Amino acid sequence: MLISHRQYNCLIAITILVSFIILFLSGQNINVFAQKGKYSVMPQVNDTNLQVQVYASGFKFPTGMNFLGPDDILVIEKNTGKVKEIKNGTVSGTLLDVNVANISERGMLGIAISDKPKYVFLFYTETEGFDGGKVLGNRLYRYEYDNGKLINPKLLLDLPTIPGPSHNGGVLKIGPDNKSVYLVIGNLNYVQNQSFITKAQNDKNGPPPDGRGGVLRITFDGGVVDNKGILGDEDPLNKYYAYGIRNSFGIGFDSVTGNLWESENGRSTDDEINLALPGFNSGWKEVIGFSKTTPGFNEENLEDFGGKGTYRDPEFVWRDTVAPTSILFLHTDNLGSKYKDTLLVGSVKNGTIFNFPLDKTRTHLVLSGQLLDKTADTNYETGNITFGRNFGVITDLQIGPDDNLYVLTNYKHKGTIFKVLANNKIN
């Protein structure tokens, strides 16, 4: 049967659309580029003076990593509860295997390692008996590293999990004082449930904070830093460093000032980068994105805990969601002097790494052109702040002891660490 030219074009359009949908549903990155006549999805950086190498693979759905030493990395797996050690780019063994929940954003979620003493901190949704079993809590443990094993677990925080199962956060960082550990946790709501919305989520008539919706800060023994809470002395309010956080997968300290910065995921728009000073209120659930663009916003509706908490607008907003994750300040010029002390932000969409210089006060990002309003209205506006792309689902960024950049990602459904280094550096 003959078909018209119009019908032919229609069929072609439908074929392309169906192919696009199949590719999307298969979990593949759709930002592909042609190479030697074939379609490839390969990580790439925008700076021709830099190169990307595969450093390690052989693990599943990694959510965090930390260096024990040169060419010695611990990687955590979200759904298995395993902590794996990677030496010289090869998985050398499993140091720990705990029972975790793994639905949605529950699982093994955060790792941080202190130097002296050598503690390994782990945050995970613990279950009873087996992986996926009865949920016991979102828990922060401190372990001791001993000759390839993690021993002597000490429970430091036992946090809520309901209603869940999303917005658990879990990223950990050692504080600039090397005596404290910071944890970011979201509001734990998949569908908003009013009975679980506390004062820490800016419900002034809600129940007291219960550990959700903020950045928590404790000593290595689980105590209150400096024996005094920032927002109040009641437990667990005395452990809050910041609050009003909806859902975050990234916190990191400025290597120059020691200030904490945080990335935050909006609902379907208004992903954020925030400067989180002590007592920072990110504004949820009264505001996400900029307060001036939030209909009906009234700062008087925000909880300030007797004037101890302070709302601050984001330093940057993506209107077209990118799902930002890891926050990292490059304290080295090993990748080039222009990157020293700049801010890197990983993301999920297109596996993009963004790069932001800071101003002289180091309290604002240096932006130009269409981004002068601190807003990327579309992803087409982000070319000048894009460091690299096609890395897969980025979950962590770290600077190694060799001063190179390491990118932890779920790449093509395989756990992978990429290494970014200068072309003139010896591998």
What can you see in these coordinates?
The protein is mainly β. It has 2 domains: 30 residues; 383 residues, TolB, C-terminal domain (Neuraminidase), CATH 2.120.10. Helices cover 5% and strands 40% of the residues. It has 1 helix and 30 strands. It has a 6-stranded mixed beta sheet, with no helix packed on it. Strands 3-27-25-24-23 form a 5-stranded antiparallel beta sheet, with no helix packed on it. It is globular and about 55 Å long. The N terminus is likely disordered.
CATH topology of the largest domain, by name, is Neuraminidase
By CATH, the superfamily of the largest domain comes out as TolB, C-terminal domain
Low-pLDDT residue spans: 1-39
- Give the percentage of residues in beta strands: 35-45%
Question: Which CATH architecture of the largest domain would you pick?
Answer: 6 Propeller
Largest beta-sheet details = 6 strands, mixed
How far is it from the N-terminal to the C-terminal residue, by CA?
A: 61 Å
Summing up helix and strand content along with how strands pair, one would put the structural category as mainly beta
**Overall 3D geometry?**
globular
Put simply, the count of helices is 1
Count the E strands: 30
Strand order of the largest sheet: 13-14-15-16-20-21
What's the CATH class of the largest domain, please? Mainly Beta
Helix content: under 10%
